């Protein structure tokens, strides 16, 4: 789920940046530091949409660096247990398959793939129904429900299921060919 | 959605959960009712959920697993212990998503870095996998990289005599066609063993193949890319050093294959101490000079003398023939019904026994007189190859194996018209799984003084 929230961060800036463009430098550095990172609490920072305020800078003893408390608005993406997501399959093996929804990696175990879908090894490993009508392979798009999430400093990892009504393949690139 | 603080994320999560788990029952009557009462407090929902569950239990007598999983996840008090936690990714059970603690789970880093599989699940998967594999008339093949399928050297170790190779490398754009590659990122030069492409192609029809190397993961993956640019053979089946559960040992515990259906190709025997019976020992492929030096060999390397193994007659082609025989005799036995309980180790043993069948060997001047011949490596090797070994000279002896041509037994051999061969004849037969022409290993008669 996406959220638009305000976060705060202490930015350390080197004295060489002090000048008329100080604020620009600060914002540029903020974007570089924060966008694409992950925190267990807020999830994945997708984009910074604005800076609310830049507080008074404090010179750090001994280094000359100055720390500015910056409040900024940003869009974050945080997966929740029970959330339904659409994701692209990245890898299929006998254990199940891995899929990605943006920065989030999701694993769907073969226990949580409908029983009528069986694993087929070969050039393109896939899960297929016995009549061959539905196929999950690399690059297939699936709708899945998250049943467990783990947020680390650098990545978000989830466990998902497609063994429920209205979940499963929503578009199959292999079928079009 | 906007909020200045994120403290309410936790509340949101539990709410979401409650909603999603309430949506799932497939009982229509209840669903309609639910829609009408969409805005209601949490307490009420709880009661209703229990009601739904009772309904489900009555109506869905078959009790599908999805139902079980569902209840688990909704955190309902009934059947809390139903999930066996078969495997985990990043510490979460793959079935129920709960934090799972199971000390016995085996890490499968080569499939996913955080994947662990419990022993029961592993056994179940092995059985299921074996069944489907045998239906396709395939077995498992575990392949070592260095000295078995290829040979690598660091730029630093390239000797002056083989420096010319640096300019003869093949393009990484078209890996399928080349065999000598320069990997700048790893400072390495890699030479694929002749015949390896044909070998992999033909072996893949009979086997599901794994790479298992003591090298690092990055190296292993790079080599897999050279061997299999189309990612047809080794898709998430590249096992490297970090996946081994024991130091300096390779084990089949991380291979998703049942022990009785795995054939191993490796040039080093001791790393497979628990699985010697599955192993086909490979003659080492030393293309680069540095590679031979590591093993104390001091003759000119293949690269320095601009030679290579012969494509059609090298080790890999010989071993491919062995694999074909093993595969054939595994699947062609008469007892068709009992496929699951067949053992490829027995097949290997009996195929090996064919090699020197009908040979009766006597050894001369190979070990000291006081040593027990039955414990000698050569003696055991010959017996494994199906030869009969003896210590008594008689008419039934066919070969005299000796290091010197001037011994009593050697003279006896020449007089009686027996083969007089160097011990390398046995070793060669052991590597090629084929009786070698004796002439090539014959000992020269001693020069008259």
Automatic annotation (TrEMBL), chain A:
GO terms for biological process: positive regulation of nuclear-transcribed mRNA poly(A) tail shortening; positive regulation of translational initiation; transcription initiation at RNA polymerase II promoter. GO terms for molecular function: single-stranded DNA binding; single-stranded RNA binding; translation initiation factor binding. SUPFAM superfamilies: N-terminal, heterodimerisation domain of RBP7 (RpoE) (SSF88798), Nucleic acid-binding proteins (SSF50249). Residues 79-156 form the S1 motif domain. Residues 9-64 form the RNA polymerase Rpb7-like N-terminal domain. The keyword NAD does not apply. The keyword Transmembrane does not apply. It is found in: Nucleus. Its main location: nucleus. GO terms for cellular component: P-body; RNA polymerase II, core complex. DNA-dependent RNA polymerase which catalyzes the transcription of DNA into RNA using the four ribonucleoside triphosphates as substrates. This is DNA-directed RNA polymerase subunit. It comes from Kingdonia uniflora.
Automatic annotation (TrEMBL), chain B:
Residues 23-38 have a biased composition (Acidic residues). Residues 134-306 form the FCP1 homology domain. Pfam families: NIF (PF03031), PTCB-BRCT (PF12738). Residues 351-443 form the BRCT domain. Residues 1-38 are annotated as: Disordered. Gene3D superfamilies: BRCT domain, HAD superfamily/HAD-like. GO terms for biological process: response to salt stress. InterPro entries: BRCT_dom, BRCT_dom_sf, Fcp1, FCP1_dom, FCP1_euk, HAD-like_sf, HAD_sf. Keywords: Hydrolase, Metal-binding, Nucleus, Repressor, RNA-binding, Transcription, Transcription regulation. This promotes the activity of RNA polymerase II. Interacts with RAP74. This is RNA polymerase II C-terminal domain phosphatase-like. The lineage of its organism: Eukaryota, Viridiplantae, Streptophyta, Embryophyta, Tracheophyta.
């Amino acid at each position: 789920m996406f959220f638009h929230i305000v976060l705060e961060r202490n930015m350390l800036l080197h004295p060489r940046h002090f000048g008329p463009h100080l604020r620009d430098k600060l914002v540029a550095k903020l974007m570089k530091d924060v966008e694409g990172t992950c925190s267990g609490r807020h999830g994945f920072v997708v984009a910074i949409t604005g800076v609310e305020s830049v507080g008074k800078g404090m010179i750090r003893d001994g280094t000359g660096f100055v720390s500015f408390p910056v409040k900024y608005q940003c869009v974050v993406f945080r997966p929740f247990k029970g959330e339904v997501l659409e994701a692209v399959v990245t890898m299929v093996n006998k254990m199940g398959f891995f899929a990605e929804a943006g920065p989030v990696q999701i694993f769907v175990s073969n226990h949580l793939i409908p029983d009528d879908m069986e694993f087929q090894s070969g050039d393109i490993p896939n899960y297929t129904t016995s009549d061959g009508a539905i196929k999950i392979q690399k690059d297939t798009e699936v709708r899945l429900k998250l049943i467990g999430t783990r947020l680390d400093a650098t990545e978000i990892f989830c466990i998902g299921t497609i063994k429920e009504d209205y979940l499963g393949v929503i578009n199959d690139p292999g079928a079009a060919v | 959605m906007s909020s200045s603080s994120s403290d309410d994320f936790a509340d949101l999560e539990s709410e979401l959960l409650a909603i999603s788990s309430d949506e799932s029952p497939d009982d229509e009557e209840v669903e309609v009712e639910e829609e009408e009462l969409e805005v209601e407090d949490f307490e009420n929902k709880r009661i209703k959920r229990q009601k739904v569950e009772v309904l489900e239990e009555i109506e869905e007598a078959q009790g599908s697993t999805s139902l079980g999983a569902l209840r688990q996840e909704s955190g309902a008090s009934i059947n809390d212990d139903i999930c066996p936690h078969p495997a985990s990714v990043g510490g979460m059970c793959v079935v129920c998503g709960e934090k799972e603690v199971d000390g016995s789970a085996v890490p499968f880093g080569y499939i996913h870095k955080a994947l662990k599989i419990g022993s029961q699940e592993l056994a179940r998967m092995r059985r299921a996998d074996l069944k489907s594999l045998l239906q396709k008339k395939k077995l498992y093949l575990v392949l070592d990289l260095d000295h078995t399928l290829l040979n690598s050297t660091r730029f630093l170790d390239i000797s002056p005599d083989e420096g010319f190779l640096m300019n003869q490398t093949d393009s990484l754009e078209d890996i399928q066609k080349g065999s000598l590659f320069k990997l700048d990122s790893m400072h390495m030069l890699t030479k694929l063993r002749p015949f390896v492409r044909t070998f992999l192609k033909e072996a893949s029809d009979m086997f599901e193949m794994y790479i298992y190397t003591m090298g690092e993961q990055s190296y292993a993956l790079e080599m897999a890319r050279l061997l299999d640019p189309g990612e047809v053979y080794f898709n998430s089946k590249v096992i490297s050093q970090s996946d081994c559960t024991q130091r300096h040992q390779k084990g089949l515990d991380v291979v998703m294959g049942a022990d009785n259906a795995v054939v191993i190709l490796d040039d080093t025997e001791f790393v497979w101490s628990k699985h010697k019976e599955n192993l086909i020992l490979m003659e080492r492929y030393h293309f680069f000079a540095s590679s031979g030096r590591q093993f104390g060999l001091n003759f000119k390397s293949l690269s320095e003398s601009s030679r290579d193994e012969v494509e059609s007659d090298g080790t890999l082609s010989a071993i491919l023939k062995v694999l074909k025989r093993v595969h054939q005799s595994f699947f062609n036995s008469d007892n068709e019904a009992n496929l699951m309980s067949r053992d490829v180790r027995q097949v290997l043993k009996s195929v090996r026994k064919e090699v020197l069948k009908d040979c009766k060997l006597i050894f001369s001047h190979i070990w000291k007189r006081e040593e027990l011949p039955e414990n000698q490596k050569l003696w055991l090797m010959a017996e494994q190859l199906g030869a009969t070994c003896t210590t008594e000279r008689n008419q039934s002896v066919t070969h005299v194996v000796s290091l010197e041509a001037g011994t009593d037994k050697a003279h006896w051999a020449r007089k009686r018209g027996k083969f007089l061969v160097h011990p390398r004849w046995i070793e060669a037969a052991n590597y090629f799984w084929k009786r070698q022409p004796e002439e090539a290993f014959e000992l020269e008669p001693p020069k008259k003084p």
